[in-house]
Structure formats: C-alpha cells, structure tokens
UniProtKB/TrEMBL annotation:
Domain of life, source organism: Bacteria
Pfam families xref list: SpoVAC_SpoVAEB (PF03862)
Organism of origin: Domibacillus iocasae
Keyword Membrane on entry: yes
InterPro entries for the chain: Spore_V_AE (IPR014204), SpoVA (IPR005562)
Entry protein name: Stage V sporulation protein AE
Residues that span the membrane, as ranges: 5-23, 95-114
Keywords: Membrane, Transmembrane, Transmembrane helix
Amino acid sequence: MIAMFFWAFVIGGLICVIGQLMMDLGSLTPGHTLSILVSAGAVMAGFDLYDPLIDFAGAGATIPITSFGNSLVTGAMQEAEKHGVVGVLTGMFEVTSSGISAAIVFGFIGALFFKPKG
C-alpha cells in the first residue's frame, strides 16, 4: 500500500514538474501549458498508453490535467464504436460533463463567498 502512494506521488509530481518546467524554461503561458498537457494525455490515450499509467500510478495519473485529455479520447472512442461519427462528438461531452459541471458550480459558489483582489 505504501508503494501505491509513493508511485502516485512520483508520477503526479512528475506531470506537474513537466508543466512547471514548460512555463519556466519554455516561456509558455499557463494556457499554452494546459493545452499541451491535455493534448499529451489525449495522444497517450489514443495510443493506449494512459490506461496502463493509471493502473500503475492511480490518482497520480487521474488527478493531473493530462487525465482530462485521456477522458475526452476514451469517451469519444467508446461512443464512436456504438454510434459512429456522432458518438465521437457526444462521447467527449458525456464522459467529461460531470467534471466540467462541478468546476462551474464550485467556481460559482466560490465567487459568491470570496471577493477577488485586484
């Protein structure tokens, strides 16, 4: 069990370090870094490399933003098998809708209780 926590920490940390290095050394904006990491997760899912990473690292691979790309591609591929081209479009939204909805709701609740500084 300790090994599971260790590898989740290491893999999740490495993904975050890669993103931080992209911004610090590559002079990329956070938006560019976010897009690249989501795309990297999507490409890894397309080549069936992300699920083994999830099996190995658990939350270390499912929590970082790369997992969002994985979810988009996985949902699209599953629905494409069932419904064809239309499934590609609906599958992405079906799998990720709960996470996006939660982000919107919690962001709104946070905005109600806290004032931005600036």
